[in-house]
Amino acid sequence: MAVNVPRVRAWASGLTPFTLLATVLAVGLGLLAVYPLALVVTRPFITDGRVDLTPVRDTLAQPDLDTLLWHTAVVVGASGLAALVVGAGLAWLNERTDARLGLATDIVPLVPFLLPPIAGAVGWALLGSERSGYLNLALRPLLGAVGIDLDQGPINIHSWYGLIFVYTIYQVPFVFMIVSAGLRNTDAGMEEQSRICGAGPLTTLRRISLPAVRPSLGAAGLLMVWLGFGLFSVPTILATQTDIDILSVRVVQLLSFTYPPETGVAIGLNLIVMLVVTAVWYLQTRILRSDRNSGIGGKGARTRPLRLGRWRPLARLAVLGYLALTSILPLGALVLVSLSGYWSSSVDFGALNLDAFRRTLSDVTTQEALVNSLLLGVAGATIGMLAAAVVSMLVRRSGRGAGLLVDAAIKFPPTLSHLVIAVGFVLAFSGAPFYMGGTLWILLLAYVSLHMPQATTASDAAISQIGAELTEASRLSGAGPGRTFRRVTLPLMMPGLLAGWALLFVTIAGDISASAILAGTGNEVVGFRILEVFASGDYAMLGSLSIMLAGATALVVVPVTWYARRRTRTGTPPPPGGRP
Amino acid sequence: MRLMNDEKKQDEATATGPVVRVDGLRRHFRRADGAITPAIDGVTLDVAAGEFLVLLGPSGCGKTTLLRSIAGLEHPDAGRIEIGGQTVLDTAARTDVPPERRGLSMMFQSYALWPHMTVAANVAYPLENRRAGRLGKTEIAGRVTEVLELVGIPELARQYPGEMSGGQQQRVALARALVAGDDLVLFDEPLSNVDAKVRERLRVELLAMQRRLGFAAVYVTHDQAEAMELATRIAVMRLGRVEQLGPPREIYERPATRYVASFVGVANEIPGTVALLDGDRAVLDTACGRVTGAAGAGLAEGDPAVAIWRPEDGRLHPAEPDTANRWSAELRISMFAGPHTEHHLTASGLDWRVWSGEAGDPGATWVSVDPSRTRILAADEPAA
């Protein structure tokens, strides 16, 4: 219809208490994200009111700076590339071929949430350690049968390939989610047209499908860099026993396990990460810009999936194999070590018992950590999603300008390393006038702020599916902005918000990177407790704690996700002709 | 109940002046490349009580922006809007009443039914929100039933919008627009998403309901046939301005400009130069010879102009007739359309259409048009 309508000045007419409150909330969240970051970036460089560049010099003077950066870059780069290939491949199999498994579509994106990466990393340490890894214990007799006798190996997870492998399997779901969405929004008719024009499946994939989802691949690649550099759980478990230096591990060592903490150097190291992330982000926007006019149809019509023929069982095996590698095997290892009571190079299946679980549950500190983590998960996810819904609504109403600025302020800082932001929260809130250091409040604030990008991404997606006319019709029916939000916008966003809530709950309850810096004996959480137990070498307790965490999150996430998906399915399709 | 007190309401409204008064409205948009384009470029019009005003024009003429400005969904740069005697927009005084306090209803092109609410809940919603004369639960339920019966879908009350056909959704949207009994109801191309048969039936019902309930309607469409059938007055819009405002018959028979003539209905054209101007009669020199017709505004002798006539006014003759405005032409093809046959003719490089009852044979023929049914208009741009 007529002219595409920018609602730039829509604020002016609707300055009600609700919009005012929403604006204050959005600006507050923006400050909460920007202020700690500003502190962290400036504080080390200002001593007694004068600019002091010592931390930069210290950082650059780190004796092993080049190996540290090189090792990290290799692991992040290699695992990112591998995850792109595997994730995009799985997505393509699922969206476009007859190898699709309904089950896999539902489960693959949930894998890192059902079994948090920290638990997965512990699981893989148990599976793949050179001497007494369970996989090695199982493989060696088989190899012996064909005449190869080994004392250790053949697998060593504490190695370059092991580290890259575990990084990869926990990065894949993010690529899978993004590329699947991209494929779903790309008209499969383009591919059918290509087939009719005489191009085979592979040519079509190369010439049509991949270029069409290039924006998704770009976004996924950027995410790989962000997540890769920030990932702390996997390397802290797997890399500390090798000579591979990973930046996130070093930062935590400098901040939490060095006395006095070398904050300046830690931040200096993270500024390097910031530079890399910004460069990748710039590259990504360039990719996206050149692709602005690629023909992505809005409808995403269901078409006949590509027949794989004799490759089909193999493709399905790959999907199931991925699920086994990420979930079933590590979970099995965790269960086995918990039931054994300790980790040894032989498993006595007759002596399995529940002692380790009892020991874990009766441990006061662990109890405290479990309760705190679940509480923080529920509170943080609820506050975060509600705030995100309000912010998305505001940003959409205000269009360009101030709204976007606030949006960027909320979204951008937490995409930097969580470790740095966590240090900012220490600087900002642990001392006067807040005195939140060592309390659950500082954790709650940090968790909410750190997870706003995920939360607002989920709520932006949810609100973008609600035609503007639905809210306009409510305004014309005499409902003000607050009432419209409560009666129309919020209920319609609910499935998307619930899915976002589940994601937030899991990442908060299982958080380990911010917790490594902000948690302590006064505000124990599961992530921090896992680090403590790992340091003490009690693998049975580590296993049972990981299983409890996975169990608790599954108990919350599965019903919520199931309900959200059901709501989306039975939920009514948007009416025809609705303006987006 | 207000729904039933139709006649009284109409009387009141007539006594207090127009339901809507738009004065000097302007709205500009900034395009992506930074250029500023006017969407509404100085519109002034009134809508009387009980009137059915149709805003008609092609895509991008500003009709929807004008409607949304009246609703309060769009924020004009300049101008005043009064609704029921109350100023709801005055850019000079920085008054801009939000849509929920303008006391009007609107039916959207997409129907904008809330998918998470039942039909009854959708229709009850406006009643729950109106502050003035707030109704109790049972009263609201009664009104909802009443209005659902009025639009012919009482059995759908407990259904969800996603479970219904497009035509049924449309009726729900109509019920929601009517339930509050407002004096003014806005329609944004509400019939463009259903098939032709349903559209025709809904048009008749809508008009009957509007006459019965007596609300003033402002209705946006790009379909000129729909506009003619529904309107008491049509405002033909072009590039953000009202090009002509009048009853459908006047718009059709006495279009003010070449643009209106070519947008509303089918117009046959003969370009030429004004040879003679005599009161409201003009004679045009054309490639087909002299053409006489009723003169439009703003003509001067020697100006380029266009003679315009409607297909149903053309007469076909096997031999040269003895009338004014007769032209020799070539009949290319005849198409039987049911009520009439459409004959396609060419003459001096011009394409014409003539609708008549008789069949025709391709070949040389003569056409004549009564000068009183021919209009001579300034040669500005036609509608695309």
Automatic annotation (TrEMBL), chain A:
Membrane topology field: Multi-pass membrane protein
Primary localisation category: membrane
Any one GO biological process: transmembrane transport
UniProt cross-references to SUPFAM superfamilies, sorted A to Z: MetI-like
InterPro entries: MetI-like, MetI-like_sf
Transport listed as a keyword: yes
Keyword annotations of the record: Cell inner membrane, Cell membrane, Membrane, Transmembrane, Transmembrane helix, Transport
A GO CC term assigned to this protein in UniProt: plasma membrane
Domain ABC transmembrane type-1: 69-284, 370-560
Transmembrane segments: 12-35, 68-93, 105-127, 160-183, 216-238, 264-283, 317-343, 374-395, 402-426, 432-450, 496-519, 539-564
Domain of life: Bacteria
Localization, UniProt: Cell inner membrane; Cell membrane
Family statement: Belongs to the binding-protein-dependent transport system permease family.
Protein name: Iron ABC transporter permease
